[in-house]
Design a protein that fits this description.
It contains twelve helices and 22 strands. The N and C termini lie far apart (69 Å). By secondary structure, the chain is of the alpha/beta class. Helix content is 26%, strand content 27%. Helix 1 (13-25) packs parallel to helix 8 (296-309). A hairpin with a 2-residue loop joins strand 5 (87-90) and strand 6 (93-102). The chain is globular. It has helices at residues 13-25, 46-49, 64-68, 128-138, 151-164, 186-198, 245-249, 296-309, 340-345, 395-407, 412-416, 434-448, and strands at 2-9, 31-35, 72-75, 78-82, 87-90, 93-102, 106-108, 121-123, 143-147, 169-173, 202-204, 211-214, 218-224, 227-230, 233-236, 240-242, 273-275, 323-328, 331-337, 350-358, 370-378, 384-391.
């Protein structure tokens, strides 16, 4: 039986990153990644296959990064883990490990309605042949219905509309009052929603799917009370469910959410087995409750903790802050930590500040876009709780700076006196730099109320 110091099951965001991290910290150890697909799609790039990229083959995680770090790769399915013997059974072959990392995906969520299994209904699988089949199907589609108006739903809807134009009607159905409402305050949601609608996508909010109609092949999505939307393709963008079958079967403890329970070092209930990524439980940075977010950025952060801790625990997870961005055409939005409405719901006494200005100076510089930043602070302490940004592509990095402030529990005053670098072609003006300005206004607001 072949033995490795480290075996990682799963070869996408979490699996690849934990394997690379393990090798970087332990160059003398042998590390094997077991992954079931020949090629792994870049998960976050999947919506762009259907428009901007034009093909699934342009959206592949390069295996060269594993080779470069000396990580071995085995394309095979792990069938069973035997913790008592430190063994993984991989398509009939037994492999022995000293440390094991489980990074085995989330599966796309589904809907508890009739008709979801019909021909023409697509769950978003991270599987190249499946995505290619969907792309082929879209070539002849007239009516596409996307269910779920989170970031996956809006990115899919917009890319399909962009690619197929007048040939296709694209409708998004959302049960909540606005798109993206789990992650942004109302004013941001409405801006994105109106922007997408102006690009030709119909969005039906406050709408619950009653059933997916058809006789084997999808024909329509029924919303109840007689309302029905014709559909020859339905795409479900309704969240993700941790894939824990292997772990459960091996007797590894699951959290009440159904994900694999891990401690702050990313260790599971079995001492030499770690888990990270979408299959692992997430604990919120705010208050330590279970957190439903599933993101590639979270997966890789957890993988850097798990990979580094395998032979000597020295990194701890501070809790999931929740940072991500999305882009539709020229409009980008980012969110980090708590929205104002989520902070109030969680019981924080908070204040918020909104500033808006160009992200270049002067504002007529090429690449300039009006950039709006909202910051939320705990009123009693002045500690930052969250932020949201709307602008152009610079929004993605602005929100990452906000996330760093949150993770370091910075005070409004620290951020107001933050030492930033600026340049006319690259950033907002030093006088109106949104992050610093918003914090300064918050300091004044807290002093004066
Ligand atoms: C359409 C879409 C867009 C997204 N956009 C973003 C975004 O913009 N930003 C962001 O942060 N997140 C985004 N996400 C979320 C992100 O894709 C996931 O959070 C991320 O992929 C999780 O990484 P992971 O490694 O845990 O799981 P996965 O990426 O699902 O990979 C799991 C791996 O495990 C392998 N595996 C599973 N079981 C076995 C087995 N038994 N044997 C061998 N191998 C196995 C799989 O084959 C795969 O290689 C998006 C998701 C989707 C679907």
């Amino acid at each position: 039986m072949k033995k490795y110091d480290v075996i990682v099951i799963g070869g996408s965001a979490a699996g690849a990153t934990s394997a690379i991290t393990a090798r970087r910290h332990n160059p003398d150890k042998s590390v094997l990644v077991v992954r079931q697909e020949k090629q792994v799609p870049i998960p976050c790039g999947i919506p762009y296959i259907f428009g901007t990229l034009g093909s699934a083959s342009k959206n592949i995680v390069p295996d060269a990064m594993l080779e470069k770090e000396g990580v071995e790769l085995l394309i095979s399915e792990a069938r069973k883990i035997e913790p008592a013997k430190n063994k993984v059974i991989v398509d009939g072959v037994e492999l022995e490990y000293d440390k094991l990392v489980i990074a085995t995906v989330s599966m796309p969520g589904s809907l508890p309605v009739s008709g979801v299994d019909q021909d023409g209904v697509y769950h978003i699988l991270k599987d190249i042949p499946y995505l290619e089949a969907l792309q082929e199907r879209l070539k002849t589609a007239r009516d596409v219905v996307v269910i779920g108006c989170g970031f996956i739903g809006i990115e899919f809807a917009d890319e399909i509309k962009k690619n197929h134009g007048e040939n296709v009607n694209v409708t998004v159905i959302e049960i909540a009052p606005y798109c993206l409402s789990a992650a942004y305050d109302e004013e941001f949601c409405l801006e994105m929603q109106n922007f997408i609608k102006a690009r030709g996508v119909d969005i039906k909010t406050n709408s619950k799917v009653a059933s997916i109609r058809g006789s084997g092949k999808v024909e329509a999505v029924d919303l109840g009370e007689g309302e029905s939307i014709p559909a020859d393709v339905v795409i479900l963008g309704v969240g993700a469910v941790p894939n824990v079958a292997l772990a459960k079967d091996a007797g590894i403890k699951l959290a009440t959410s159904g994900a694999i329970e891990v401690d702050r070092s990313m260790k599971t209930s079995i001492d030499n087995i770690f888990a990270c990524g979408d299959c692992a439980e997430k604990i919120s940075f705010f208050g330590g409750r279970s957190c439903p977010l599933r993101l590639a950025s979270i997966a890789t952060q957890e993988a850097r903790i798990a990979g580094a801790n395998l032979f000597n625990i020295w990194r701890e997870h501070a809790g999931t802050v929740g940072v991500w961005s999305t882009a539709v055409g020229s409009l980008a939005m980012g969110t980090a930590g708590l929205t104002e409405s989520a902070a109030k719901k969680a019981g924080y006494d908070c204040i918020s500040v909104v500033v808006e200005g160009p992200n270049r100076h002067p504002g007529v510089m090429p690449g300039a876009a009006p950039t709006k930043l909202k910051l939320v602070f705990e009123k009693t302490t002045g500690v930052i709780l969250g932020g949201q940004v709307r602008g152009n592509e610079s929004a993605g990095e602005i929100i990452n700076i906000v996330a760093a402030c949150i993770q370091k529990r910075m005070y409004a005053d620290d951020i107001a006196t933050f030492q930033m670098g600026t340049h006319p072609a690259l950033t907002a003006s030093p006088i109106t730099y949104q992050l610093v300005n918003a914090a300064e206004l918050a300091v004044a607001k807290m002093k004066n109320t």
